[in-house]
Amino acid sequence: MLSIVKEPYLQWPTLHSMTIMWETSEPSDSRVEILAAERIHSGYQGNYKKPEQLLCEVYSEDYCTIHQLTVTGLEPGTIYFYKVGSKHGQGEIESGPHPMKTAVRKGEPFSFAVTSETGGYSGFDSSNGQINRRIFKQMQAFRPDLALFVGDLVNDGTNYDDWDTYFFSPGKHLLTNTPFYSCLGNHERNASLYYDLFAYAPPKNYYSFDYGDAHFICLDSTDFIKPEHYPRSSGGMMPGNEQYDFLIRDLQSSFAKWKIVFFHYPPYVSGGYQVEDLRQLCPLLEQYGVDLVFNSHTIVYERSHPIRDGVVDMDNGIVYIVAGGAGAMPEWLLPRREWHTSQSLAVPHFVQVVVTSTSLEVRAIDDEGRLFDMMRIKKDFYGKRTFL
Ligand SMILES: [Fe+2]
């Protein structure tokens, strides 16, 4: 019988488009309907009418199980509702309406949430995935415009069931209405399922995109640090390597107010699983004005001081944040901090970042919604940063 295996989820939001994916139990066709979001007001609370006005529809008659359709012609920073549907000769399914929001223009504030390890920790903890469910629920409560997952979404990326167990099922309430990006962690094992399930720009294991005043770059640190050499570099962090050359070109071509890079292995963390060889990337990130780097792998929260040239630099440094997220293992932190550590704590968490054209606010929030760390970067007209 035809059924929905993965509820619809949102990929690659732009000013005028959204890509919508879902999975069905059997090969079937694909349809997305975009509906107008009409606000109504009662008292002090805004809400929406039941969405009924059909604005556009995209259809593919090709039968598949992992469905992917891109809707174009949308307005920037606008909330819509969408429905998906699939049918074959013996049945049909429908999901929605779910809300979605297109990317905002430059100059418009937005917020994004960062976490990781929904599978890397929950895959072997004793709470049967309850931690990642609590983190997903808190992320949803803070209503981010988009989400970043810094790898280890699953325990074993080659295991089909893992993707539902650790990611799509616990995350479905967030993922139906929040576009998200992810990078490869070691637990994904560079599995073909990662490439099948996500609609990132080719080659998918590294890519970049703009959202509001921020430019985001996703890197594949599991390619720079191959499993057979871990934790040593495989020698690719230099010109001539495809991913490294992409990084140079991409940094050179972006003039966004904020540059944010995310990849799995942490170059700076005062705990086990620090991968120091990735510091070979830092001079390039510093040269082109990267503001924030998000990592994971060590299942803790840690925020570095601003760092440049391998030392604390409160004027021009990059802040490295380990958002080890949906799990926490105190024994993974060293008994004492390292010189680069500004704040660290082994608690389940996500990181909320609020972006305006002149400020980045970083807030670390635990699985009960409590704020436990905060930092702000202000940037003036000339690009000079102040860390608050
Ligand atoms: Fe990892």
TrEMBL record:
The keyword Signal applies. Residues 9-89 form the Purple acid phosphatase N-terminal domain. Residues 133-300 form the Calcineurin-like phosphoesterase domain. InterPro entries: Calcineurin-like_PHP, FN3_dom, Metallo-depent_PP-like, PAPs-like, PAPs_N, Purple_acid_Pase-like_N. GO terms for molecular function: acid phosphatase activity; metal ion binding. Keywords: Signal. This is Metallophosphoesterase family protein. The lineage of its organism: Bacteria, Bacillati, Bacillota, Bacilli, Bacillales.
